[in-house]
Design a protein that fits this description.
The complex is a heterotrimer of chains A (102), B (185) and C (638). Chain B is built from 7 helices and no strands. Chain B is an all-alpha fold and 185 residues long. Helices cover 73% and strands 4% of the residues of chain C.
C-alpha cells in the first residue's frame, strides 16, 4: 500500500504554516525565527520529494539537493548576522532590532 | 502498515515543529528541530529517496542544527527575561495562519492527483537495479552540472560572508602589517 | 489725413513709452507739444471741411468682435458734433501741454506726466469719434484710467492716491450703469454701431412695463442707465464726490481733465444719444432735475470753501449741471455751445489759478493770499476775464451760452421747467458771488502771508503766461463768434446730419425783453454785492457766518455727502471685505487649500513613516497578509 501523495502535501502545508506562524508570533528569540525558516524550507523539500516519487522523475530530488545546500548557507550567514547583532546590542530579543525605525 | 507508520511520523513531525516555536528555552527548540529533521529523513525513506534521507541527516542535523546549537551556547542568552509582547499579536497572527492553512489545504484537496501508482515492475526498460544514489549521480554531474557549480559558489560566498561578518580585531594579537613592512620610512 | 488729429497723441504716447530712456526729456516734451499742435491744426482743418462741405466721414480701421449680431469694429466716425469735440479736446490739450512745459518744469517725472497726458488725449478722442458703443466704452474707461493715473501723479502723497482711487471707483459705479445701458441697447436693437441704431430707431417698438403706478418702456430704461453713466463721468449730484478731491492732481491735469474734456464726456454721450432722450419723457425730466440739483448744490458749496482749486472744481460741477439742464430740454446745441465756451473759460481759470499757486510756491488756500493784483497784473486781468465769462456778463463768451440755456428753459413744456428756471437763476447769482469772492480773497483783501514772501512774488514764465493770454482771448470772443454755428438755422442741417435731434419748438428767447435780461442782471448784481460787502461791510459777512453757522457748516462739509457715503457704503464694504478676508479667505479657503495640503502632506508622510517600524515581524506579517489575500483572490475569484 503506497502512501497517497496528497498526504505528503497536507503534511508539507502544515509544516509550512507552522514555520510561518513561528516567524511572526515569536518575540523572544531571533534563533527561533531562523529555525522557522528552516522549517519552511523543509516543507518545500518534502513537497519536492513527494512529487519526484509520484512522477518518477528524478528532478525533484535534484532540487532538494540544491535546496539543502542553499538553506545551509543561508543558515550560516543568518547566524553570523545574529552573532554580530548580539555583539552590538547584547540581546537577541526581536523587539530590539529596530534601528531601521522611522 | 506503511500508512500507519506514516501517520506516526507525521504526528511526531507536527508536534515537534509546534514545540520548536513554542519552547521557552532555545536549546529545547533546537533539539526539537533535530527531531523534526530526523523524522523527515524517515519520511524521505518512504518515498524512496534514501540518499537524500542520509544527506539530510548528515547536512541538516549534523551541520546546521549543530551550528545552531553552537551559536546558542556561545551567546550568553538570558532566557529568564520574559517580555509581554507575545500576546498582542497572538489572535491576529493565529487567525492569519489559520486562514493560510485552510487555503492551502483547500488547494491541495482540489488537486486531481490520485493514488500513487508505482509501476516500476511493469515497463522495464533495462534490468539494472535503480538505486537512488546511482540515479542522482547519473544526472547531477551531467544535466545539472551548472547548478552544481553554482551551489558550490553559493557555499563559498556564504563561507566568506559568515567569516567576514564575525571577524573582529583583537588587541594584543600579533599580526603582520604588510604595508608597514614594505613601505620605507 | 483726417485720422491724424486722433492718432497723433497716440504716436506721442508711444514715443514717450519707448524712447524716454534714450532721448533727452526736453526734446521729447517739445516733440509732444509740437505733435499736439499739429493735431489741433488738422482738427481745425477737419472742422472747416465739415462745416463748409456738410460732409461726414467714416473710417473703418479693423475688426474687433464679430460674433453673430454682436459686431464691433474699430472705426472712426466724424460728423459735425464729433468734429467740434475733437477740436475742443485738441485745443485744450495743446494749451495744457504747452503750459505744463513751464508749470512742471521742476518736476522729476515730467516725462511720465506728458506720457499720460497724451494717452488721455488719445482716449478722449477715441471716445468722441467712435463709431459704435463698445469703442465709446473703451474710450470712456480709458479716460477714467488716465484720470486715475494723473490725479495720483504725485503718488507719494497719501491724499493723492486716495483721491485717485475715489475718482476711479465712483466712475466705476457710473460705468456699471453705462455698460448695462449698452447691453440693453444691444438686446433691443441687435447692433452696437451708431448708424444701425439710429436708422432702426423709428421702426423700433419699445416694450412697455408697468412699475408700481406708472408705465415705463425700454427706451426709458435705456436712457436712465445712460444718464446714470453720464452722471458718474460728469460728476452730477450723487456721483460728484470725486470731482473736488480730484484737485489733488497737478493744475494742468485739473484744467484738461476736470474742466474741459473728461467731465464733458457725459454731456457728449447724452447729446450723441439724443434720439433716445427725446423719446423718453422720464429721462428728460430726470436730466433737468439732476442738472439743476447739481448746479445749485455745487454753487452753494463753492461759497464757503477756501481752496482755490476746489472752488473752481465746484464751479465746474455747477456748470456741468447747466449743460445737463440744456440737454434735458433737448437743446443739445446749447449744451454743446456751453461746453465749448465753458472749456475755454474754465481752463483759463484753472491755469490762472495754477499761475498764482506757482508764484506763491504751491500755496492753495485763498485765506492765505491777498493783495496780489499789483504783483501779478497779467494773471489778475486774465482771472477777472475768466470770472466775468463764468458769471455770464454780456460780451464775454459765457453770457451767450448761459443766457440761452436759462431763457430757453422758460418755454419748455417739461413738467419741471418752471422749477428749473428758478433754480438756474439762483445759480447764476451764486456763480458770480463765489467767483468774485475768489478774486477778492486772492488779489485784493488783506495780506495774509509773510511780507518777505510778498516782496519776491513775481509773474511766472512765458510758458505759463502765453496759454493764459490765448485762452483769455477765446474766453472773450468765442461766444460771439461761434454762436452762429450753434443757433443759426443756416447750420441746422449740420446738427441733423450728426443725428442730434434738437427740439426746434423752443423759443430761444422769451417774448418779454426784460425777462431775458434777468440772468444778466443777477450776474452783475452779484458782482456788485460781493465788492460792496467785502470792501465796505466786512463785519456783516462775519456776522452772517456766525449767525447761520449751521448752514455754513453744512455747506462747508459739502452737504455731508462724503460722510453719508462713508457711512452707507464705504464702512460696510470695508467690513465686508474684512470679513471676507479674515473669515473666508484665510479661515476657509486657506485652511482647506494650501494649509490643508501642507498639513496633510505632513500627516500622510508621518503615517507612512510610521509603517516603517523597524521590526522584522511586522514586515513579515505584512508579507503574509498580502500573500493570504493573493491566494484567496486566486482561489475564489479565478
Amino acid at each position: 500500500m503506497e502512501i497517497p501523495i496528497t498526504y505528503y502535501l497536507y503534511l508539507s502545508v502544515i509544516i509550512f504554516t507552522i514555520g510561518l506562524i513561528g516567524i511572526f508570533l515569536n518575540r523572544k528569540n531571533l534563533i527561533v525565527v531562523l529555525m522557522s525558516i528552516e522549517l519552511i524550507l523543509l516543507s518545500a523539500n518534502i513537497n519536492f520529494v513527494a512529487f519526484a516519487d509520484y512522477y518518477q522523475n528524478i528532478a525533484g530530488q535534484i532540487y532538494v539537493f540544491f535546496n539543502l545546500s542553499v538553506s545551509a548557507a543561508e543558515a550560516a550567514v543568518g547566524l553570523a548576522i545574529m552573532v554580530t547583532f548580539f555583539r552590538k546590542k547584547d540581546s537577541i530579543h526581536v523587539d530590539d532590532i529596530n534601528s531601521l525605525k522611522g | 502498515m506503511t500508512i500507519f507508520l506514516f501517520f506516526i511520523v507525521s504526528i511526531i513531525i507536527i508536534t515537534s515543529s509546534l514545540l520548536v516555536i513554542l519552547s521557552k528555552n532555545p536549546i529545547h527548540s533546537v533539539l526539537f528541530l533535530i527531531l523534526v529533521f530526523f523524522n523527515t529523513a524517515i519520511l524521505f525513506l518512504f518515498s524512496g529517496a534514501e540518499f537524500l534521507a542520509m544527506i539530510l541527516l548528515i547536512v541538516y542535523i549534523g551541520a546546521v542544527a549543530v551550528l545552531f546549537l553552537f551559536v546558542i551556547m556561545m551567546l550568553d542568552i538570558n532566557t529568564a527575561k520574559l517580555r509581554q509582547s507575545f500576546l498582542n499579536y497572538l489572535p491576529i497572527g493565529l487567525f492569519v495562519g489559520f486562514v493560510i492553512l485552510l487555503e492551502l489545504l483547500y488547494v491541495v484537496s482540489q488537486s486531481k492527483l490520485n493514488f500513487l501508482s508505482k509501476n516500476i515492475t511493469e515497463n522495464k526498460i533495462t534490468n539494472e537495479i535503480f538505486e537512488n544514489t546511482k540515479i542522482i549521480g547519473n544526472v547531477l554531474y551531467t544535466d545539472y552540472f551548472l547548478l552544481f557549480q553554482l551551489s558550490g559558489i553559493i557555499l563559498l560566498v556564504a563561507m566568506i560572508g559568515a567569516i567576514l561578518l564575525t571577524l573582529r580585531k583583537r588587541e594584543g594579537a600579533k599580526k603582520q602589517n604588510i604595508y608597514k613592512q614594505i613601505l620605507k620610512k | 489725413m483726417y485720422l491724424l488729429p486722433i492718432f497723433l497723441p497716440l504716436i506721442s504716447f508711444f514715443i514717450f513709452v519707448f524712447l524716454s530712456n534714450f532721448l533727452n526729456k526736453r526734446i521729447l516734451i517739445y516733440i509732444s507739444t509740437f505733435n499736439i499742435f499739429l493735431a489741433t491744426f488738422f482738427s481745425f482743418l477737419l472742422t472747416k471741411d465739415i462745416i463748409s462741405n456738410n460732409s461726414a466721414y467714416d473710417f473703418f480701421l479693423f475688426n474687433w468682435l464679430n460674433s453673430g449680431n454682436l459686431i464691433s469694429t474699430w472705426s472712426i466716425n466724424i460728423d459735425f458734433l464729433i468734429s467740434i469735440m475733437i477740436l475742443i479736446v485738441n485745443i485744450i490739450s495743446a494749451i495744457v501741454q504747452f503750459y505744463s512745459i513751464g508749470y512742471m518744469k521742476d518736476d522729476l517725472s515730467i516725462a511720465r506726466f506728458f506720457c499720460y497726458l497724451n494717452l488721455f488725449s488719445f482716449f478722449m478722442l477715441i471716445l468722441v469719434s467712435s463709431g459704435n458703443l463698445l469703442q465709446l466704452y473703451v474710450g470712456w474707461e480709458g479716460v477714467g484710467l488716465c484720470s486715475y493715473l494723473l490725479i495720483s501723479f504725485w503718488f507719494h502723497k497719501d491724499s493723492a492716491s486716495n483721491a485717485s482711487l475715489k475718482a476711479f471707483i465712483v466712475n466705476r459705479v457710473g460705468d456699471m450703469f453705462l455698460i448695462l445701458g449698452i447691453i440693453l441697447i444691444y438686446l433691443n436693437f441687435n447692433s452696437l454701431s451708431f448708424t444701425n441704431i439710429f436708422s432702426s430707431f423709428n421702426n423700433y417698438e419699445p416694450i412697455k412695463y408697468s412699475f408700481f403706478f406708472f408705465d415705463i418702456n425700454t427706451i426709458d430704461i435705456i436712457c436712465l442707465l445712460l444718464l446714470l453713466g453720464a452722471m458718474g463721468k460728469s460728476g452730477q449730484f450723487g456721483l460728484h464726490t470725486w470731482l473736488p478731491d480730484a484737485m489733488e492732481g497737478p493744475t494742468p491735469v485739473s484744467a484738461l481733465i476736470h474742466a474741459a474734456t473728461m467731465v464733458t464726456a457725459g454731456v457728449f454721450l447724452i447729446c450723441k444719444m439724443s434720439i433716445f432722450f427725446n423719446n423718453s419723457f422720464l429721462a428728460s425730466n430726470l436730466t433737468v432735475f439732476i442738472g439743476s440739483l447739481t448746479a445749485i448744490f455745487a454753487a452753494t458749496v463753492a461759497l464757503t470753501h477756501n481752496d482755490i482749486k476746489k472752488i473752481i472744481a465746484y464751479s465746474t460741477c455747477s456748470q456741468l449741471g447747466f449743460m445737463f439742464i440744456a440737454a434735458g430740454f433737448s437743446m443739445y446745441n446749447l449744451a454743446i455751445f456751453h461746453l465749448v465756451t465753458h472749456a475755454f473759460f474754465k481752463a483759463l481759470l484753472f491755469l490762472g489759478a495754477g499761475s498764482v499757486i506757482k508764484s506763491l510756491n504751491h500755496q492753495q488756500n485763498i485765506k492765505k493770499m491777498g493783495k496780489l493784483w499789483k504783483k501779478l497784473p497779467l494773471t489778475y486781468a486774465i482771472m477777472i476775464i475768466g470770472c466775468l465769462a463764468l458769471s455770464g456778463i454780456p460780451i464775454f463768451s459765457g453770457y451767450y451760452s448761459k443766457e440761452l440755456i436759462v431763457n430757453s428753459g422758460l418755454s419748455s413744456n417739461l413738467f419741471l421747467s418752471k422749477y428749473v428756471y428758478l433754480i438756474s437763476i439762483i445759480v447764476v447769482l451764486l456763480t458770480s458771488i463765489y467767483s468774485f469772492r475768489l478774486i477778492y480773497h486772492v488779489f485784493h483783501g488783506p495780506l495774509n502771508f509773510s511780507i518777505n514772501q510778498y516782496k519776491i512774488v513775481k509773474e511766472s514764465s512765458l510758458f505759463i503766461l502765453l496759454p493764459l493770454l490765448f485762452l483769455g482771448f477765446f474766453a472773450v470772443f468765442s461766444g460771439y463768434f461761434f454762436k452762429s454755428f450753434f443757433i443759426d438755422d443756416k447750420y441746422i442741417q449740420l446738427w441733423i446730419n450728426s443725428n442730434v435731434a434738437i427740439n426746434s419748438n423752443l423759443d430761444l428767447h422769451h417774448e418779454n425783453f426784460f425777462v431775458n435780461l434777468i440772468p444778466t442782471f443777477l450776474g452783475i448784481f452779484g458782482i456788485i454785492l460781493v465788492f460792496y460787502l467785502y470792501f465796505f461791510r466786512k463785519n456783516l459777512i462775519l456776522f452772517l457766518q456766525r449767525k447761520f453757522n449751521l448752514i455754513y457748516k453744512f455747506l462747508l462739509n459739502k452737504w455731508y455727502f462724503d460722510e453719508l457715503y462713508n457711512h452707507l457704503f464705504v464702512q460696510n464694504i470695508i467690513k465686508l471685505s474684512d470679513n471676507l478676508w479674515k473669515k473666508i479667505d484665510i479661515g476657509l479657503i486657506d485652511r482647506l487649500g494650501p494649509n490643508a495640503i501642507a498639513l496633510s502632506t505632513k500627516k500622510v508622510s508621518k503615517f507612512f513613516s510610521s509603517l516603517q517600524t523597524g521590526y522584522i515581524y511586522h514586515y513579515v506579517f505584512s508579507f503574509i497578509i498580502g500573500m493570504t489575500l493573493l491566494i484567496s483572490f486566486i482561489i475564489f475569484f479565478l
